[in-house]
Write a structure and sequence with these properties.
heterodimer; A: mainly beta; 7-stranded mixed beta sheet; B: mainly beta; 5-stranded mixed beta sheet; 9 strands; 0% helix
């Protein structure tokens, strides 16, 4: 049981390049999330998916697209990377169990855009 | 989801209780209070949650005021490993709708 797995762990992009961050969970959770965390800041929600086939914008969606490919996978795409998108990206999933909503997080992807 | 307000930072002596406050004055009747913590650069980890009664588990205790407008997370015997950023979140329980919004959190520094 790996929980939430993110790939890659580290990435350096040049301005204008595109890339997709991958996230997969093996807990059969319906809800999945993408966050970014800038140095010294809290987590900000980029996109949210309540279930397979549905996505919703979070607090900072501009410059990103997402795909909920199936129940397990939720990918985040940067179409044209900018230095302002340098950040640590976290994926999470959650489910309601016994009345409790607990989110599980991946280990993060450290992205630098130069 | 209701917004929360937390102090940006707090210190605590090792072995003493750490009391982390959170204000959520606009909380709705069907919203729970959740606490997460983030150690160094790892992903956040669930600690505890509650609706209106005080709650305790192996990690911490949660005290919610009677009017539910504020709460306090208590780490009864803080250790150096409890140094982390603590996030207070309110959200509707049940179902799979609703976004999980983190604020800035409180950076707790446990000192020897």
């Amino acid at each position: 049981n790996a929980g939430v797995t993110q790939t890659p762990k580290f990435q350096v992009l040049k301005t204008g390049q595109s890339m997709t961050l991958q996230c997969a969970q093996d807990m059969n959770h319906n809800s999945m999330y993408w966050y970014r965390q800038d140095p010294g800041m809290g987590l900000r929600l980029i996109y949210y998916s309540a279930s397979e086939g549905t996505t919703d914008k979070g607090e900072v969606p501009n410059g990103y697209n997402v795909s909920r490919l199936n129940k397990r996978e939720f990918s985040l795409r940067l179409e044209s990377a900018a230095p302002s998108q340098t950040s640590v990206y976290f994926c999470a999933s959650s489910e309601v169990r016994l009345g409790r909503t607990e989110a599980f997080f991946g280990q993060g992807t450290r992205l630098t855009v130069v | 989801d209701a917004k929360t307000t937390q102090p940006p930072s707090m210190d605590c002596a090792e072995g003493r209780a750490a009391n982390l406050p959170c204000n959520h004055s606009t909380i709705s009747g069907n919203e729970y209070v959740y606490w997460y913590r983030q150690i160094h650069s790892q992903g956040p980890q669930y600690i505890i949650h509650g609706l209106k009664n005080n709650e305790t588990n192996e990690m911490a205790s949660l005290i919610i005021t009677e009017d539910r407008k504020s709460s306090t997370l208590i780490l009864p015997h803080a250790t150096l490993r409890d140094t982390a950023v603590y996030y207070c979140i309110v959200r509707v329980a049940g179902g799979n709708t609703g976004k999980l919004i983190f604020g800035q959190g409180t950076t707790l520094q446990v000192k020897p």
